[in-house]
Task: inverse folding
């Protein structure tokens, strides 16, 4: 085994400073045509060459006159002007020059025979004339340096006689994906393969930060091949990003490669995720070795590549936008590193609520779903629930405020309804977090959610949901929006190879189960069924294996790591599993009555009552929509 | 004369609704590769095809084991595992499959002879294994419809097995510049010519709003040529913008063209600027006739083209960001129309101050300089100074807050200093408004500016600036930052064709003067000199012709509309004029002492004291920098 067990643990700010210092100031500029310069960054202030207008121009349609010829005019003393001698017709924009020094509007003159007009009031000198330089005066500064060129800037630059400008060159960023296990999107995916996607995220980020990405074909974990690729990329670019091979595994060559080809500045930073970052120089070009997990990769890219690209592209530095929010649950963080936690934000009543998303370094979807990032400093052990925290925004606060926060049980219909809502009024969104029905009830109690999708069976009465709301939310004036009738059933492999017939098969020696987390409505249903049949949960193989969504249960069965699970029809269908119905349940929405009047909630109800929504559910199967949208 | 004198005056909201309704819903979609889809807008929600990972994967470097083989392990009961039988080495990301169901980290094992390791604690089932679908579960929604694709979305889509997605087609927008008077940028500019720049602003805006611009070569004001161009553009595009010919002048053909080729929906909206807008349909394609003045053009484009492009490109509708600000001066507006006023914002103390920029429809620079737009409804006659108004932001509020608001006398050095500041710290800006020295003093008194550049001569003492501050700003604790010694002089045409020798030449019959506005330091200087020489201002030809900057005075002389003016050397030099020095004055900065500690003010002082700044001034000539940056 050839493992590089030792990584440094450098403070991230220190590492960034070191990296930027060592990378140097290699801004380059180039002259480009103004036309097509949208979004580029000026390297110098730009001064007008011409004035605009560069002549005295009529500001009106009318006649050009000599003001002194008109001074006697009044309502009782009409003045007659003769063409050629006294006036000429002008359109807006026509040049006004000697001997004329004023314009009278067409509405203020009357014809008085051929080539004669009469006026009843005097024109003062220079009236209705746009003086030379009214818009732009030659030599005045049109835009400063380090300015991102906007459409109106292009207009003003051209008007000022500028056709070429000096801008910062876009730094070229080479991106090398590596790894024997990765395959290109669209290629056949075998067990153990990973679709290469990080480099495509980097490509997009490089463009957004003002650089020019060059993505290379993936290189397998082979020292010589990697060496050749890295050397070439350093030659062809200003900055190189190599992904991954940055860790301490037996096939992680990046640190050694950087050392062999140039200089290793550091290996390992005190962040989570992103620890095994590598920074170095090859042929004087900064190289960033980025870890493989997508979120680690993103964190390291955002810290080092973003700062360097921004600097070299000459863009103005912007403070990152932050908001204060209330943390919805306790978060413990290590003193060993600074942690970057993806945060879902929601505005419920007057509070901005921050809910941490999956902290796993491999969960790209946590970035897709994130509204912001919470940085927990290395010196902090975390935060308590209810504490006020500062969140760096990834989205507009406005979008966040116009979002229904749904916390509770998972069902595909939440995605469907959210999408239909957004399509009807793109100002509104629905964000749904899956923490199980009881988790939803608790979120409502803590004022963290607008609605909680729940399906909670009361064992005594056999009635869904209402008893739970009464019991746990008695101090809030609550309503229940009726959702759907949902078929629950046993999921098992296609064609049911283990001949499962019912819940009692869970007791079989040869059956592996996969369960849902505590508080999930489906878990409560399973426990209810076990109790009813006097079955002992402790004897079930896999009872302790908990998944948080129907789809995750279905996926576990599809992949063969379990034989049997309980969930909804749509999940079984999606994963091509057999489905044995065990009953119908009420999947409803608990909502504080106070929210019922809000526009976005009304839109949500409108959507779930719509024929389009019902048709969609019918096409999926497994749902009934008798009372959908009814408010209790 | 063939003039179309009558324009409608339709309410703008009504006009927009009519236009959008008549334009119809012609959104088209297309399938494109995910790679390269950055910034496009999804037409449908996108559901994952594969799970990610799509196998159970080791989350650590270590060994894969069967959990049940390890249950007995403890510190007092080492368990020895044999390779092949009990474990295999795995790297992070390797597939874990039957018979293995747990991973032990490399750090937690010890070698125990060849192909043997020992462990001291049990592994629980599924530990350190990323379950199938941990990131993405097949069939879950990755992104909704009407979503602008970001870099992380591309990563998630690829990981979920998506290689192609349905997006909205970018609406094609044809842009036709017209006018016999326009010339292309870079072409020779004769008197009466206008550089064509509006179409280039539109190009940029179309791109920003998600459309695909197609700009045609300019067409002269010729009915048949215009007809052919418009017909062709309607055929080749989804939307056509024609600029200009929309007014009621003798060569304004657009309305007639639209009528002849299709249907004229309306001509004339109740806005200022932008009144002569034209809306129509040709071959069923929406056509927008945009007026010629750049600001009018921008207003009409922003109202109609933006709304339509946004709608057809499927982008989520965003509320426009507004702020509340205090209006710095009275603004009267007509009841005949809704007015769009460009606003400069500045944060002074705790107040956001809104200062209207030049309201002229031809002043592109008012758009370049604007921080926001004030919409004065048709039903309003305007606002009083000090009134709170709502301003639509064109820039980030943060940028506005980090801007030194300078109001007062004009000098090129303000641009130079502002640019150097911005270059040293791109987080800070300097915005300078030119209202003359007394205007600056008054702005400080009203709390609307951080600094006021002034050069005000006290007639009695002959001392600059200090007396004025004492007199007009006695109730504010003020400081004076010494600026530059500045040479003032008489500007006249190159080679002094009228043999001007001094201020007394102003009395000559053959000399036309161009003056500065009341309250300008230079005006005060001129009056002082006239008084000293017992000259009668009333007898000066052009005394009443007021310009608001040195450059405007210089431009008037350069263009031959005046023979003589007073201003600074840099302006004369820039316009290639002769310059007869008449004295040196103190151009200083009045500043409330309270602002001296602010970072951006300190940066400003640092800049004007820098050698770089002094060198720059020396290279321009006409400035002395003995005490620059000194605080009094």
Result:
């Amino acid at each position: 085994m050839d493992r590089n067990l030792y990584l440094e643990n450098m403070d991230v700010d220190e590492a960034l400073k070191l990296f930027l210092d060592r990378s140097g100031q290699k801004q380059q500029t180039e002259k480009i045509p103004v036309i097509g310069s949208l979004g580029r960054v000026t390297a110098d202030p730009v001064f007008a060459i011409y004035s605009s207008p560069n002549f005295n121009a009529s500001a009106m349609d009318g006649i050009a006159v000599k003001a002194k010829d008109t001074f006697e005019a009044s309502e009782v003393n009409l003045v007659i002007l003769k063409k050629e001698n006294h006036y000429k017709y002008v359109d807006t924009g026509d040049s006004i020059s000697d001997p004329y020094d004023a314009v009278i509007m067409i509405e203020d003159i009357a014809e008085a025979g051929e080539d004669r007009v009469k006026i009843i009031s005097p024109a003062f000198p220079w009236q209705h004339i746009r003086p030379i330089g009214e818009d732009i005066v030659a030599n005045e500064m049109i835009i400063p340096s380090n300015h991102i060129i906007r459409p109106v800037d292009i207009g003003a630059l051209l008007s000022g006689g500028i056709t070429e400008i000096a801008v910062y060159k876009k730094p070229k960023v080479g991106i090398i994906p590596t790894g024997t296990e990765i395959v290109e999107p669209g290629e056949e995916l075998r067990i153990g393969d990973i679709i290469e996607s990080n480099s495509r995220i980097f490509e997009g980020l490089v463009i957004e930060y003002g650089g020019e990405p060059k993505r290379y074909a993936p290189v397998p974990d082979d020292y010589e091949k990697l060496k050749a690729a890295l050397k070439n990329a350093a030659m062809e670019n200003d900055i190189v990003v190599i992904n991954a091979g940055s860790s301490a595994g037996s096939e992680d060559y990046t640190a050694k490669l950087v050392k062999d080809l140039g200089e290793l500045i550091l290996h390992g930073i005190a962040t989570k995720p992103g620890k095994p970052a590598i920074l170095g120089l090859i042929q004087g070009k900064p190289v960033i070795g980025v870890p493989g997990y997508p979120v680690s990769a993103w964190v390291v890219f955002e810290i080092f590549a973003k700062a360097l690209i921004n600097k070299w592209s000459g863009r103005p530095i912007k403070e990152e936008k932050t908001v204060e929010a209330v943390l919805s649950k306790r978060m413990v963080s290590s003193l060993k590193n600074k942690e970057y936690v993806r945060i879902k934000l929601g505005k419920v009543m007057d509070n901005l609520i921050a809910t941490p998303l999956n902290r796993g370094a491999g969960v790209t979807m946590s970035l897709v779903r994130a509204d912001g990032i919470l940085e927990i400093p290395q010196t902090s052990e975390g935060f308590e629930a209810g504490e006020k925290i500062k969140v760096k925004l990834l989205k507009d606060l406005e979008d966040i405020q116009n979002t229904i926060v749904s916390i509770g049980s998972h069902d595909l219909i939440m995605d469907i309804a959210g999408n239909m809502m957004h399509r009807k009024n793109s100002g509104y969104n629905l964000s749904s977090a899956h923490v199980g029905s009881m988790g939803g009830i608790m979120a409502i109690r803590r004022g963290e959610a607008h609605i909680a999708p729940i399906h909670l069976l009361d064992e005594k009465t056999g009635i869904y949901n209402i008893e739970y709301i009464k019991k746990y939310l008695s101090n809030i004036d609550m309503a229940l929006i009726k959702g759907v009738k949902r078929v629950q059933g046993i999921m098992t492999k296609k064609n049911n190879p283990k001949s499962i017939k019912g819940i009692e098969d869970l007791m079989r020696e040869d059956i592996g189960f996969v369960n849902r987390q505590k508080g999930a409505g489906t878990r409560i249903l399973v426990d209810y069924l076990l109790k009813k049949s006097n079955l002992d949960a402790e004897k079930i193989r896999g009872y302790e294996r908990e998944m948080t969504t129907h789809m995750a249960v279905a996926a576990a069965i599809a992949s063969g790591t379990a034989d049997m699970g309980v969930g909804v029809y749509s999940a079984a269908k999606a994963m091509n599993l057999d489905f044995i119905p065990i009953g119908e349940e009420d999947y409803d929405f608990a909502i504080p009555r106070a929210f019922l009047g809000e526009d976005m909630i009304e839109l949500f109800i409108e959507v779930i009552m719509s024929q389009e929504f019902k048709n969609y559910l019918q096409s999926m199967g497994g749902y009934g929509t008798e009372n959908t949208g009814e408010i209790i």
